[in-house]
Design goal:
By secondary structure, this protein is mostly beta strands. The protein is 9% helix and 47% strand. A hairpin with a 3-residue loop joins strand 14 and strand 15.
């Protein structure tokens, strides 16, 4: 029998006792006195099976036999690290990597930033994907100020969802908190070595004319505005960078750390073939999504936002990485 725990598929098998070492990869030395837990995913969530603490050599041992998949979680320098124990892998001499944490700004840097606008009849879904490249030897963790900060326009009325994809982990959601600065929000989540993606999703009402503005808080990395077919934008600090082949979306490079655009038309991201097939259907900003009953309509932007942000980040990243002609 196999168990699917997104994004992995585990086949059930027995795990004997697990032992190994926690290593501080910042220093290369064993991490002494680190607290660990052996947990198991299931239909009801994570279940803690056993706890341990590393000795003077950074070694640990769980004497608990388990059935199915298991995770080793270690808390080090205030940050949680997870080691996935795939069925069939060795359970002796397991190495769990941890890192020193710092709150020094600039430790993690933005490598890509996409802003997707999908206007419908009454609302415009806004999806932002921000990819951070963590320091190879340090974890950036600023619990007080938020390791991740972003601008949320007042038209969103403080309704926003933040989904995080950390290195080797499953997508999780974290709350966004107000800061002392107007329309600036923070998320308390450590950025570890490797790539971490933050997906921000919200809606703003459609007005006539529809003027949308925002601020970019990071100094490094390019920021792109992604516009689906059927929609046009005008702004003084935009530069057309190309077209994404799969969805035919237009990609505009944002020059500067603030932007203000006028948006016209309606449309949503979808493969070009599907767009032409939808032909005479009413354009409500999400042509490929079936109608949702009114009782959950107030949460529709969360569902659409997460789906389209994933599509946008993957599609545009593919476009950027493809060889250019000429």
């Amino acid at each position: 029998m196999c168990i699917r725990v997104y994004p992995w598929l585990f086949c059930v098998s027995a795990f004997a006792a697990v032992d190994g070492t926690v290593i501080n990869r910042t220093t290369g030395q064993p991490a002494v006195g680190t607290i660990l837990q052996l947990v198991q995913p299931g239909q009801g969530g994570m279940q803690t099976l056993a706890s341990a603490k590393t000795d003077a050599e950074g070694k640990f041992r769980f004497d608990k036999d388990t059935q199915g998949p298991a995770l080793i979680q270690a808390i080090f320098s205030g940050v949680l690290y997870t080691k996935v124990m795939m069925p069939g892998t060795p359970t002796h001499g397991v190495e769990v990597d941890v890192f020193q944490a710092t709150n020094k700004p600039g430790t993690a840097k933005v490598s890509q930033h996409f802003i997707v606008l999908q206007p419908g009849a009454s609302e415009m879904a806004v999806s932002e994907g921000i990819l951070y490249q963590g320091d190879p030897q340090l974890t950036y963790n600023d619990a007080a100020n938020g390791s991740f900060r972003f601008y949320l326009p007042p038209e969103a009325h403080e309704k926003v969802s933040v989904t995080i994809n950390a290195p080797g982990g499953m997508p999780i959601q974290r709350p966004a908190q107000k800061t002392a600065q107007a329309n600036i929000y923070k998320v308390d989540y450590p950025i570890k070595p490797g790539e971490t993606r933050f997906d921000i999703n919200y809606t703003v009402p459609v007005t006539n004319p529809l003027i949308f503005s925002g601020k970019i808080l990071h100094a490094e990395g390019a920021s792109d505005l992604v516009i689906p077919t059927g929609v046009t934008v005008k702004g003084d600090n935009l530069e057309l960078a190309g077209q994404e082949p799969k969805t035919q979306a237009s990609i505009y490079r944002i020059k500067g750390n603030e932007y203000k655009v006028t948006v016209e038309g309606t449309g949503g991201l979808q493969p070009a073939a599907e767009a032409s097939a939808s032909g005479s259907e009413e354009d409500n900003g999400a042509p490929t999504i079936q109608e949702v009953k009114p009782r959950i309509y107030d949460r529709l932007y969360l569902i659409l936002g997460i789906a389209f942000a994933t599509l946008a980040a993957g599609s545009v990243a593919l476009y950027r990485s493809s060889p250019k002609k000429g």
